[in-house]
Structure formats: C-alpha cells, structure tokens
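User: My instructor asked us to take a sequence, write out its structure as tokens, and then describe one feature of it. I'm not sure where to start. Here is the sequence I was given:
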Amino acid sequence: MSRDSLACNVCPVREIAACAALNDREREELAGLGHHRTLKRGQSLLEAGADNTVSATLLKGVLKITSFDEDGTERILSLIHPAGFVGELFAPSAHYDIVALSDAEVCVFPRREYEKALERFPSLGRAALRRSSNELLEARSLLAAVTGRTAVQKVASFLLALARAANPHETGHASRFDLVLTRGEIAALLGLTIETVSRQLTRLENERIILRDGARGILIQDAAGLSQVAR
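Assistant: Let's start with the prediction itself. The structure tokens for your sequence are:
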C-alpha cells in the first residue's frame, strides 16, 4: 500500500465523482484534507468492528463491501466502481469490510474532516447523497439477482447489475465490463454451483446475448435480450 497527496487535475473521475459539484477553490480545499492510496487485490481499506476513521472515493479498480455470517460465510453486499463513494458517515465504528477486488486506487479522507466538508459545501453534500442513493439502488439490484429466480435469471440479473454499476454515468448500462469476481464468488453470491454459473454464461453466449472477451471481460451484445432473460 502506498499513499500520496491528491492531484485533482489528473483525477480519472474528476468530472463524475461527488467532488465534481465543487468549484476549483472548494475542490482544492477538499483535496488538502485527503491523500491518494493504492490497494492490492484482497487488501482491506476498512474492516468491520474497527474505528471508522476514513471515507474514500474510488478512482480505479473495484471494491466490495462484505459481511460475514456467524458460520464465517462471506456475503457480498455491494460492489463499488470508479467514482463510487465508500465509508459509513457519522458512525463511530465500521459495520462492514471494504476490500479491493482488483488492484485499486482511492482518494482517502479522514471521516470527521469529510463530514465537516459536507457541512461547509452543501453542493458536495447533495452530490454525495445522490451518489449514495444510486449505489443503494445498485446494491438492491444485486440482492434482487439472488432472490426467487431460476439459474439463468440469476446470472442475467447479476450481469445487468454489474453493467449498471460499471457505467460511469448515472443512467444506462456499460456495454463492456470485467467480471472481477471469481466463478466461485459468483456462485456463492447467487446460491448456485460453479458449474451452473459456467453453464448459464455459456448459454447466454450461445444465444448471442453476451460475448466473453478475454479472461474476465463481458461484452453485452443484446441488452434488451439480457433484460428479458432476467425478468
């Protein structure tokens, strides 16, 4: 893990993150509160039960927000894509683990200082609330993918949820994204076996709804068809 001062002028999510609502002076003040950090795949940004000291905006990579059942089973609650915000504001301790699913880069701020910035800059507060609402909808879409559906519906719904989350804008789907979860992680999330996940992906590809692009890439060829399968 490494950390450096923020360089907003070269930030890859400068125009779409919550801080895009700030003017140059306000952005400079906010940047002075934080630092840039890199995470390796599997590395935690925050752990459940720890002091809740940080808030962060994701610049590159993918994060997962998870919890564990009493028997140690991991439950993935949400996936965070670039420009997404993580951190439990106004809470003294963390309730969930935030873990890098891939190598990642984040802008990290002390939680209390970020909370004060929300009060000083109402436009930042509104933008953060809007983004948090969008991410809550994405989390609910992910949850809907595992509830009361056939195997192919679960996989199609899961792909749609990932496509929505991977879109840098607030509406629509990304036409291409990477499956950052392993087959085993997808199977555990959807309540399926690894073999079933693989069969359903193959089925969607054979029907020319998706195309697997490289080791992890997914290209949606027929968005309407994928939505129809997911219903």
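For the description part of your assignment, you could build on this observation: The chain has a mean pLDDT of 87. Try explaining in your own words what that tells you about the chain.
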